[in-house]
User: What shape does this take?
Amino acid sequence: MTPSVEQLIKIGEFENGESTIIRKAYDFAKKAHQGQKRYSGEPYFNHVYATAKILCELGMDNVSVAAGLLHDVVEDTPVTDKDLAENFSPEICFLVDGVTKLGEVRFRGSRRHIESLRKLFVATSEDIRVLIIKLADRLHNMRTLKYVSEKKQKRIARETMEVYAPVAHRLNMGQIKGELEDLSFPYLYPEIYHDVLEMAKDHYAKSEHTLRNIDNKLKEELKKNKIKLISSDYRRKHLWSLYLKLKRKDMDISRVYDISALRVIVPETSDCYKVLGIIHSIWRPLPGRIKDYIAFPKPNGYQSIHTTIFSGTGNLAEIQIRTSKMHSEAEFGIASHYHYKGSKTASSWSQDILNRLLNNKPGTTKVVEAKTPAWIDEVVSGQTDESQPEDFMSNLTEDFFSNRIFVFTPKGDVIDLPTGSTSIDFAYHVHTKIGDHLTGAKINGKLSSLDTTLENGDIVDILTGKKLTPTAKWLEMVATTHAKRRIKIALNDKQS
Ligand code: MN
Assistant: This one.
């Protein structure tokens, strides 16, 4: 059965005017992919449909959804750029072209691939929707990866883990990042995946029992204190991030306190602190585990309060407190800021997402303004009511790309550094030992001085020697605190 276009329009809640191009793209893509099959034996069209559906779920605009439907027509069917241009707007064609170019990128290996990767960042920096469509495409490919050859599975999973998941993380799209990592995990490390899964399973049952009791008690207390609760639920830690944490705790799962956590969602920022106060007056918090990411958001904009408490039954439990707005931002990141022309305003739009997310009936959730993550706030602050969504997106894109550069190892691995970074930052980012023994650097094949500022797309080859090389002068030549710290340690070692 062919999936219906009506369903897409319903999920995306598009109005009549908006849905026209979606219908057109749907018909065009269906015809173009006619007779094509995926490895699974399914019609190829199901893949582009699924990609568009993810974009609808993210609340992306109609242009992105249309481009999602069309994203493989130029690459995989006889349809040409020209055919597309005759039927669709330049905006849609630009997005399709950007995603097609991304499709050619291989993130490891030959020089030609590094070239296409460079092109990719140029295309993406013009319109961040290219990247979001690519993430949706990759997510569906990962969900159906079991059908391709083993060799291909490994390559795609690695690329996902090394490139796409970090990009999703940078965009604060926690939901997609977590799913991409967990889908890659079993292909890259099947045995470890199995072990972690088994360990986690045992803990889920135990900790969720504890959380349920805490949840019930907390609900009563919030009622007594007249604090409106939007929702509370348990969230399980994604397996890959659990594994990374286990590695830091000598694989001792009893030292990981947030395998499951209780997530409490309230209307206002001030409510978050009230809830924290109530929790701490009932249960004793574990010292050193109270994290206020509302006052001090994570670099990607993540906001929430985390605390770990003694449950009273011998177990520890983590509770996360946040507003609805913080929640949708943490799950959908940059996409949660995507609002567009027409009847939908930003706030009704985020309410739509929330309703979907929290599984409430429309209209039962009140969305209130909360503090926006700083880096997004800076971009949005330039906006007026008359600002067009295009301005908003180009500002957001600029901010994302203006603070970071993407450079490459000679093998084609992507290294993401703050602007102003040098080969020294690069070397320390790759490995402390490489930084400590750095003797020189080739940038794009040319020997360059160590204080040369790296630029987007540079390929950096690090030369090393046996001796410890850092000097005090290096401290002036780096942009990352990580490099600075490592250099100081090396200087001390040299003296002693
Ligand atoms: Mn595709």
Residues 190-224 form the longest helix (35 residues).
